[in-house]
Amino acid sequence: MSRIDTFRAMVAKNPSNVLARFGLAVEAEKEGLLDEAREHFEAYLTGYDDEGNGWQRLAAVRRALGDRAGAVEALRRGMEAAHRFGHPGMEDEMREALEELEGES
């Protein structure tokens, strides 16, 4: 069984398992299954107080799907989370990505 199939089985067994959702989202992103990755990052972030990485990954997936507004929202929420959890480097990375996105208007 592949890693993605393992995570799919875990989520099917317990859809409220946010860490399985995160793992599935990461594996889906790696395989280019962006709609699936977006779905599971969003489910993960609904149920977990992420420190910033999940928001950053969601922003990248939304951007790749052409959802600029969704990417901006995810970056802003990720910056807030990174700040709240004391991750200034991650916050700076997301700020740079946000400035890049806003410059694409």
Q: Could you characterize the architecture of this molecule?
A:
- The protein has helices at residues 3-13, 18-30, 34-47, 53-64, 68-84, 88-103.
- With 105 residues, it is an all-alpha fold.
- The protein has 6 helices and no strands.
- The protein is globular.
- Helix content is 79%, strand content 0%.
- The N and C termini lie far apart (43 Å).
- The protein has 2 domains: 1-48, no CATH class; 51-105, Serine Threonine Protein Phosphatase 5, Tetratricopeptide repeat, CATH 1.25.40.
- Overall pLDDT score: 96
CATH topology of the largest domain: Serine Threonine Protein Phosphatase 5, Tetratricopeptide repeat
CATH superfamily of the largest domain: Tetratricopeptide repeat domain
User: How many β-strands, per DSSP?
Assistant: 0
- Measured between the Cα atoms of the first and last residue, the distance is 43 Å
- Provide the domain count: 2
Assembly state here? single chain
CATH class of the largest domain: Mainly Alpha
